[in-house]
């Protein structure tokens, strides 16, 4: 984890949110999501308040609304599932625009959309203000099992390597006049996938032997120690703290 690794979700900046230690942001987002999930679905105003809190975080992090909304498209499958709920759920029915919909299904769809969207938005803001390397350091600081951190680190490092290998293989096929146009070409693609698997496996073996020859004994050395002072923890706790107040009001009002 000694080398930086940029990802497409990350937006370089120098805002106060970017400057927070990664483990404080991870804790804040996790606590915020727990609070959102614990909010009663009938308290619609509370979810609007949560959205306002995330908008303030995005403003402080200088993350444009277009950048955030474009990344929210990842939840489209969940939106499709939520849209189906009023049609397939059982229980009391009501007519909406001439359609017979389930009341429980409507509440369930709202629950999935509201809480899912807020959770995804919080995760996107976290990824937009924290590099992958810093996220791994934050997980390490939060005492996540070291083996899981190592697996995630290797996935981050070699995901792009395998993707680049796939790109080179595709260029090699196209340079020889190959174009996948139908079922009859699936055999060639299957052979390419097999070759990619073998190359990736061999690369993994070579990397492991190189690590062992350099003293690897099951744990990675800690190069950077991420620390946070009381002021940074206080700043990071503003989001989940304000959300908790909204949640309590949602249960009592």
TrEMBL record:
Keyword Membrane set for record: yes
Presence of the UniProt keyword Nucleus in the record: no
InterPro entries recorded: ABC/ECF_trnsptr_transmembrane, ECF_CbiQ, ECF_transporter_component
Bilayer topology annotation: Multi-pass membrane protein
Compartment list: Cell membrane
Domain of life per record: Bacteria
Transmembrane segments: 43-60, 72-89, 109-127, 233-251
Keyword line: Cell membrane, Membrane, Transmembrane, Transmembrane helix
NCBIfam families in the record: ECF_T_CbiQ
Protein name: Cobalt ECF transporter T component CbiQ
Species this protein is from: Streptomyces atrovirens
